[in-house]
Amino acid sequence: MNVYGITKGRIPTIKRALETGQISPTNGNGKYHNNKRVPEAVRDQILQHIERFPHYESHYCRRDAAITRRYLEPGLTISKMYAMFIEYQRENGLPEAEKWLFDDIFNGKYRNLS
Fold it and tell me: Fewest Cβ atoms nearer than 10 Å: which of 27, 91, 97, 104?
């Protein structure tokens, strides 16, 4: 058991799997990985939704700066934007996305947007 890094409780599970004819039982690691694949259409809809909000440059920023920071309206949060996205998708019969995906796209693609 130490050599293969398995626990005592795993032995009966492996035994049952072999008795039922399975050549090699799977351990289930990563079985939920495929559920995180999201159609590109949903990703594009999230991007389009975020782009609909007006972006402003701060008058305190230097105009010749290589990286310009853009700002959304005061009081607008990612959670509010997500709620508006879900409402829009439901009204138009389009597929919805989970909050983690919306956050991931916003924080990844729009790093310079506050």
Answer: 91
